[in-house]
Design brief:
About 30% of the residues lie in helices and about 30% in strands. The longest helix is centred in the first third of the chain and has 12 residues. The protein has 2 domains: about 60 residues, 2,3-Dihydroxybiphenyl 1,2-Dioxygenase, domain 1 (Roll); about 80 residues, 2,3-Dihydroxybiphenyl 1,2-Dioxygenase, domain 1, CATH 3.10.180.10. It is built from 4 helices and 8 strands, in the order βαββββαβββαα. The protein is flat. Strand 3 and strand 4 form a beta hairpin.
């Protein structure tokens, strides 16, 4: 079994106002966040995005940790950039820049209510072919987990 880190399992945002932030991600961005409460954690909001767990937590769930805007940026995949931009702008959200082609994706961005800068990418066919090739080689989280069990 490999001791190296190969996959990201979760992205957790910590907020002073997690309900407000979760509502923004649900209603504006369109994430399927659900209320969660387990173990000794206070109510928070989470969903699965591909193989990754995404959640928004209150400060109390991370004792000693703070919240704030740092150097971590989020990037979400969309499959219809024009439709996504139209939806976002109809909700009064100002884009940081209009969609631009970077060669591997069409990209745009804006900030969430906590000030986190979030990007949205419509990945190119070339990038999806790259991901497909990795999966065919068994370089995906489920294949690696299955290999670890044998």
């Amino acid at each position: 079994m490999s001791e190296s880190i190969e996959f990201l399992s979760a992205v957790l945002l910590v907020s002073k106002d997690p309900k407000r932030l979760a509502n923004f991600y649900r209603e504006v961005v369109g994430l399927p966040l659900e209320d969660e409460e387990h173990g000794e954690t206070e109510k928070h909001y989470g969903c699965e995005l591909g193989d990754l767990h995404f959640a928004i937590h209150p400060l109390a769930n991370f004792e000693g940790a703070g919240s704030g805007v740092g150097s971590v940026k989020l990037a979400f995949t969309v499959f219809d950039m024009a439709g996504f931009v139209k939806k976002i702008e109809s909700k009064g959200i100002k884009l940081a820049y209009p969609p631009k082609d970077t060669g591997f994706a069409l990209m745009t961005a804006f900030s969430d209510p906590d000030g986190n800068y979030i990007e949205f990418t419509q990945l190119s066919d070339r990038w999806f072919k790259h991901l497909e090739s990795r999966k065919q080689k068994g370089i995906d989280v489920v294949s690696r987990w299955q290999k670890s069990k044998s």
